[in-house]
Design brief:
alpha+beta; 3-stranded antiparallel beta sheet; two-stranded antiparallel sheet; 5 helices; 5 strands; 18% strand
Length: 114
């Protein structure tokens, strides 16, 4: 099965999410095995709130997914894992993605119509 090419907006969101060294470390760590927030925070060496913020950004970009599970003692734990992706960048791929952009800058809203 061949995945559909990313839209321009999806590509920008994915690249923006990966443009942070800590988020790259998180993805690399989760690519090895899924993990729960507290353990992942300890292993990476960041606070849980900071980790959650970065995980949320990665989840919004479609790079990771989180699921709530109950431990044997009944404690709720959120596990994260990488969603399998294959990102191939080339000039032609960027040209095609640019045709479907709906925002000039994701942080600033819709692109202006000229």
């Amino acid at each position: 099965m061949v995945a559909a090419p990313l839209t321009g907006d999806e590509l920008v969101m994915m690249l923006a999410a990966l443009a942070n060294p800590l988020r790259v470390r998180i993805v690399a760590r989760l690519a090895v095995r899924r993990d729960y927030v507290s353990n992942l925070a300890r292993e990476i060496g960041v606070s849980r709130p900071l980790l959650r913020m970065h995980l949320q950004r990665l989840e919004e970009a479609g790079l990771v997914v989180g699921t709530m599970e109950l431990s044997d003692d009944g404690k709720a734990m959120k596990y994260f894992e990488v969603i399998d992706f294959d990102l191939h960048l080339s000039a032609s791929a960027l040209t095609e993605a640019a045709k479907s952009l709906t925002t000039s800058d994701p942080g600033k809203g819709p692109a202006r119509k000229e």
